[in-house]
Amino acid sequence: MHKNQIARVLPGRILRMLEKEHLEYEYLQEIRFRTGRPLLFIYRGEERTVRNDHGNPYQVTEEDVREMVDYISHYSLYAYEQEMKQGFITVEGGHRIGMAGQAIMENGRVKNLKYISSIHVRLSHEVIGCADQVFPYITGNRELYHTLIVSPPGCGKTTLLRDMIRQISDGNRWVKGMTTGVVDERSEIGGCYRGLQQNDLGMRTDVLDGCSKAEGMIMMIRSMGPQVLAVDEIGLAEDVHAVEYAMHCGCRMLATAHAGSMEELRRRPLFAQMVKEGRFDRYILLGNSRRVGQVEGIFDGRGTLLYREKEYA
């Protein structure tokens, strides 16, 4: 991540305080602004407080939030009305900035936000090569198995997914280069900014940005004919139905889901049947007991452990 990308949306006084923390910006994960509350950030997986010149926790002001909104929206929040319906804006570099405040409703749906009081900056990181260790276990005869990444929130599943897509698209020693379709509902995988990918997803990848997963998967199959279809965070019944449709159409599926363990995944009604029927051939379980993105295990479709990082052996 380039420091100047995030510097463009931060008030100068905030940036100066962060600089005093002597941060390595590639390990900065989140920054949270809440009016009248301490300024918090997540660094190397740990929550920390920004302190002022007196050594006290810095309290976020209305001016801080207002200034950030101006920078993020280029002084025209209404120009981002479509994005604000989703509650966030993606800025250059693929960084996602979520906002909360008073919703402006129209016909029972959110039209925009006003009186914004909270801002959540989620920093996009590319970790080239982080997926190297999983490929021997999710491929066979240079083809990809249907694979589901299972992870609690904040454990690096999107980072892993991103590098897997890149390597599948370009090809490596384990898999031949494959045409890959990405349905990026929240602009987190490709980090598209004004229609252009900010993250490297490979030479054979097409991205459908800002579209619902269920609708987007069907659109990609019909329009782009992908060999591999990748989505982040399937969690609704229509998502599961679209995944099954894609599999029946011959696409190899690469997806992620929230769960803290294989047992928890099996208990979730949405996934219980898929796991029981062995729809996915491989499950990659992530955790953060030692570090963010720790591969705690890779399992086959029957739940047999195939791989575990050495720390857990």
From TrEMBL:
Query: Cross-referenced SUPFAM superfamilies, in alphabetical order?
Result: P-loop containing nucleoside triphosphate hydrolases
**A family per Pfam:** Spore_III_AA
Q: Does the keyword Nucleotide-binding apply?
A: yes
InterPro entries (alphabetical): AAA+_ATPase, P-loop_NTPase, Spore_III_AA, Spore_III_AA_AAA+_ATPase
Annotated AAA+ ATPase domain ranges read 143-290
Superkingdom as given in the UniProt entry: Bacteria
For this UniProt record, give its keywords in alphabetical order, as a comma-separated list. Answer: ATP-binding, Nucleotide-binding
Is Nucleotide-binding set as a keyword in this record? yes
What Gene Ontology terms describe what this protein does at the molecular function level? ATP binding
Q: Tell me which NCBIfam families the record gives.
A: spore_III_AA
What is the designated name of this protein? Answer: Stage III sporulation protein AA
